[in-house]
């Protein structure tokens, strides 16, 4: 069973607008972490934001925020005030308690239009 | 400070050859991870080291793949008898002792002709 699902292969957003990238996950472990990474065309995976399953508040990092809905098992990434440099692939990932590995989704390609 | 570095950045080899890919983690990071990313896919886990020992090698696809981290710092991923299906970007990541976050290197693009 796929543990991380990103249903949007591609998304477009106008510069300066906000955009939400969807991520749902599947785990029976009560303790886990959720991550978002950005991968520009250069190929490097850039860490954006982290949410722990027991965190009471949604994580925020600058223009990035994570809309964490535990009961729905969703961890959507919200990018506010999009910039041209935000154009990239975005990956959602999960790490279960006691595991080292990250499990990644298929990614969403975001294109920011001027 | 310096990030995770990987060498070479590109490697082209012929089917059946042996290759080594190197990863130099961020100083002080105790955990090191290898992933493989095929075109259009998310990274897939290969192996994870905590210190010198492999804590989880469940992602290695077969016994042609092997990785070492003899001194708990630099790691080498070794692929024997390469096949065309091994062509991918091999990503290395490291994480510090007190955080879950993994920081990735730029990757090695392996092409098997």
How are the SSEs ordered, and which strands pair?
The complex is a heterodimer of chains A (114) and B (113).
Chain A: E1 4-5, E2 10-14, E3 19-21, E4 24-25, E5 32-39, E6 46-52, E7 60-61, E8 64-69, E9 74-79, E10 88-96, E11 103-104, E12 108-113
Parallel strand pairs in A: 2-12
Antiparallel strand pairs in A: 1-4, 3-9, 5-6, 5-10, 7-8, 8-9, 10-11, 10-12
Chain B: E1 5-7, E2 10-13, E3 19-24, E4 31-37, E5 44-50, E6 53-56, E7 65-68, E8 75-79, E9 88-95, E10 103-104, E11 108-112
Parallel strand pairs in B: 2-11
Antiparallel strand pairs in B: 1-3, 3-8, 4-5, 4-9, 5-6, 7-8, 9-10, 9-11
Distance between the ends of chain A: 39 Å
The succession of helices and strands of chain B, N to C, reads EEEEEEEEEEE
Identify low-pLDDT runs of chain A: none
| Discrete helix count of chain A | 0
- Regarding quaternary structure, what we see is heterodimer
Q: Give the strand content of chain B.
A: over 45%
Number of strands of chain B: 11
Q: Return Rg of chain A in Å.
A: 14 Å
Largest interface, counted with CB-CB under 8 A?
Answer: A-B, 24 and 25 residues
Distance between the termini of chain B: 37 Å
Share of helix among residues of chain A? under 10%
General shape of chain B: globular
Structural category of chain B = mainly beta
Q: Mean pLDDT across all residues of chain A, rounded?
A: 95
What share of residues of chain B is helical? Answer: under 10%
**Biggest sheet descriptor of chain A:** 6 strands, mixed
Spell out the helices and strands of chain A N to C. EEEEEEEEEEEE
Mean pLDDT of chain B: 95
With helices defined by DSSP (H or I, 4 residues minimum), what is the helix count of chain B?
A: 0
Strand fraction of chain A: over 45%
């Amino acid at each position: 069973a796929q543990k991380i699902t990103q249903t949007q292969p591609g998304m477009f957003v106008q510069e300066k607008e906000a955009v939400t990238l969807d991520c749902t996950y599947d785990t029976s472990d009560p303790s886990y972490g959720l991550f978002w990474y950005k991968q520009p065309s250069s190929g490097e995976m850039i860490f954006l934001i982290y949410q722990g399953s027991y965190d009471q508040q949604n994580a925020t990092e600058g223009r990035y925020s994570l809309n964490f809905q535990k009961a729905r098992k969703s961890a959507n990434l919200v990018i506010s005030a999009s910039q041209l440099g935000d154009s990239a692939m975005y990956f959602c990932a999960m790490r279960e308690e006691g595991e080292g590995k990250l499990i990644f989704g298929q990614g969403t390609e975001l294109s920011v239009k001027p | 400070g310096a990030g995770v570095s990987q060498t070479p950045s590109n490697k082209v080899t012929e089917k059946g050859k042996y290759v080594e890919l190197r990863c130099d983690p961020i100083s002080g990071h105790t955990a090191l991870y290898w992933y493989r990313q095929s075109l259009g896919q998310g990274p897939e886990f290969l192996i994870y080291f905590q210190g010198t020992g492999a804590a989880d090698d469940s992602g290695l696809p077969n016994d042609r793949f092997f990785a070492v981290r003899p001194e708990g710092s630099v790691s080498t991923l070794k692929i024997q008898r390469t096949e065309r299906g091994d062509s991918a970007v091999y990503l290395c990541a490291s994480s510090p002792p007190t955080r879950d976050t993994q920081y990735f290197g730029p990757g090695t693009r392996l092409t098997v002709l």
